[in-house]
Each structure stands twice: as C-alpha cells, then as structure tokens.
Design goal:
By secondary structure, the chain is mainly beta. The chain folds into 2 domains: 39 residues; 308 residues, YVTN repeat-like/Quinoprotein amine dehydrogenase (Methylamine Dehydrogenase, Chain H), CATH 2.130.10.10. Helices cover 10% and strands 36% of the residues. It contains 1 helix and 24 strands. The strands form 6 sheets. Strands 3-2-1-24 form a 4-stranded antiparallel sheet, with no helix packed on it. A 4-stranded antiparallel sheet has the order 4-5-6-7, with no helix packed on it. The longest helix has 37 residues. The N and C termini lie far apart (70 Å).
Length: 365
C-alpha cells in the first residue's frame, strides 16, 4: 500500500508539473504575442530640411507631416543649403551669408546622422580651395570624391564666375572641373549624378545682371576626365526654362528640375519641369502656383517614399512660404505636408537619410 500511495503521489506531482509547465508556456506565448503586437510599426522616413530662416536643419515626418523638431544647429551655420547623408554623417553646405562685400568663403559642416551632434567641418572657409558661394553637393559613387557647385559672384561682380569644386573624402581640395569647353559665363547651382554616370549641373546667368536673369543651362561633365561634355538642355531648347537649381532623376531616368518664372512676362509662374533623360526634351510641367494667386517657388526638389516628389516652398508670399509639398508626379496633385506659417521659415534644400549621396535617389527601406 505504501508503494501504491507513493506512486499516486508521483503521478499527481507529474500531472501538476505538466499543468504548471503548460500554463507557463501559454503565458510565455501570450507575452511574445503581446510584445509583437505592441511594437510600433516602422515609421516612414523623416525628411530633413535646411531652413535658412533660422539657420537650422529640421525634421518632418514624410508621411504625416508632423514636425519632429530641430535636428541640427551650430554656431556659425549661416545659410544652410546643399545636404547629403553619407558614412553616418549629415553634411550641410554653409554659405556663410553676410551683408556687404566682405562675405567669407563657404564651408561644409558635419553632423552625426542620428543625434545631430556637430562633429566638425569637412572643409573650412579658410582652407585652400574653399568654395566662395557653395550650393549643391554630391558624393561621387565610384571615386569617393565630393563635388560642390560654387556660384561665384564675389564682391557683387559678374567677372567672378563659379566652378564645380572637387574635394577628397577627407575634405582636401583636389581642383575644379574643367569648364573651358563651355564658352558662356558659368554660374552653377545644383549638381547630381545621372544614370549615365555623368555629373549634371544646373547653371544660370549672372544673378546681378538683369539681362542674364532668364538664362538656364543643364550641363554635363565627365567626373573621370573632369572635362565638360555638353549642354544637355538650356532656355534655348526648352520653352519656359529659367534660372534652374534643384535637379533629380526619377526611376525612369527622366530629369526633374526647378524653373523660376520669367519676371519680364506677366502671367508666367514658377514651375518644375520634366525633361527626357536621354534627349533633354521637355515632357511635362508642374506649375507651383497660378497667375493671380500668391506666388510659390522652390529652390530644390527631391523624390522620396512611394515615388512622391517633395517640394519645399519659400519666397515672398505669407500664404505659401514655409510649405512642404508632397506631389504625385503622375496626377500633378500636391498636398501640403507642412502649411505656411508653421515651423519652416525659409526651407531650401531637403534630404532623406536614405537618399543616395550621388544620385539623390531615394533608396527606400
């Protein structure tokens, strides 16, 4: 009887242990399910915006438009323009804007891409070969060099033309691209690498000369030989093309580029033009406002999630300045992710963490 009693006790213990183990396993599964269900879904990328109104870099949720605060600010940052993410850093071109004729050279600031902490300068305004009026910047995909558009125009003098300056990955000046094959005056603003591996440069006439105010070029350079290749498009070949800056290719290889209005013509408006990526022929136009309504113009543009085109608006109209628009390039319908009068004062250049530093193409998640 004693052995039978112990046998029953052992069976009861085993049964109890089995029930406890089952409960523990079910509880563990429930916890895992709960954790999985409560982990937030990955949020869409933030878009980073250089705001020349208060000389900061700000963040906005690219899906909802929610303002995510100031990401980067540093004493001496005065006139933030071109930006790229590369090697865990956000590089911000600083124009060093100032009044009068004693404006210092520009420079490039480095910030930690996650925290916005200032890390130093890629090159300083006092370094050899520092760009005087830098604007756009890209990183060569194959040669690991930085290409910076320098508008020039020093001391209010159109004699001082610009250049495309080349810097090593450590910021050492390596020289200028050879623009001698391009005979007109050279005032570059934006740069981007195209699908053909050539460097595309947007350029205008001298901004101080009213007679040159409508001039527009898209030029191509070979980054290996550093020589000028050809004029891809101009105001002579594309109707309504004036004073371009921001340029970027879409997934089909077509070039989208900003075009400011013709100030000499009543009723003309600021636009974004779509050019055939092989021929430079005008394919389409996206007006940013309509005549008789508040003006809206953009210095740069950028493709982001879902193939949408992001357009920061600045200018002289309170009703539109400070908008960030997200546009469907097929329907030409745009929505204001950020409204005028909000956190953005003078938004100029925009970038995503996942924008390719060479082509500016959005690489997604």
């Amino acid at each position: 009887m004693t052995s039978e009693r112990y046998s029953r006790i052992d069976e009861e213990r085993r049964a109890r242990c089995t029930r406890d183990l089952t409960r523990a396993m079910l509880a563990g599964i429930a916890i895992v399910i709960s954790v999985v269900l409560t982990v937030p879904v990955a949020r869409a990328d933030d878009i980073f915006i250089g705001d020349a109104g208060d000389n900061t870099v700000k963040r906005v949720d690219a899906t909802t438009g929610a303002y995510r605060g100031t990401f980067a600010v540093q004493q001496g940052l005065n006139g933030p323009v071109g930006m790229i993410f590369t090697d865990g850093e956000l590089l911000v071109v600083n124009q060093n804007k100032s009044e009068g004729i004693n404006q210092p050279n520009g420079e490039v600031f480095r910030f930690d891409e996650r925290t916005g902490l200032f890390l130093g300068k890629l090159f300083s305004s006092t370094d050899r070969g520092a760009a005087f009026a830098p604007q756009g910047i890209v990183l060569g995909d194959e040669d690991d060099k930085f290409y910076v558009a320098d508008l020039g125009v020093r001391d209010d003098d159109c004699v001082n033309q610009g250049d495309i300056k080349v810097y090593s990955h450590r910021g050492a000046f390596l020289g200028n691209l050879d623009r001698r094959g391009f005979k007109p005056a050279f005032y570059p603003r934006g740069v981007v690498f195209g699908p053909d591996g050539l460097l595309y440069v947007s350029a205008r006439g001298c901004p101080l000369n009213a007679g040159d105010s409508q001039i527009a070029y898209v030029l191509r350079f070979n980054p290996h030989s550093r020589k000028f290749v050809d004029v891809f498009a101009s105001d002579a070949t594309v109707a309504g093309f004036h004073r371009p800056e921001g340029l970027v290719f879409d997934d089909r290889g077509n070039l989208w580029i900003t075009s400011f209005r013709d100030n000499t013509k009543d009723g003309d408006v600021d636009r974004i033009l779509k050019l055939d990526g092989r021929t430079g022929r005008l394919l389409d136009s996206l007006p940013l406002w309509t005549a008789g309504h508040p003006r809206a113009f953009a210095q740069t543009i950028l493709f982001g999630p879902d193939g949408k085109l992001f357009v920061p608006i600045f200018g002289d109209a309170d009703e539109t300045t400070g908008q960030l628009r997200r546009c469907d390039t097929k329907t030409k319908h745009c929505v204001n992710l950020v409204e005028a009068g909000g956190p953005l004062q003078m938004p100029l250049f925009v970038i995503f963490r996942r924008s390719d530093p060479s082509t500016l193409r959005y690489r997604g998640r």
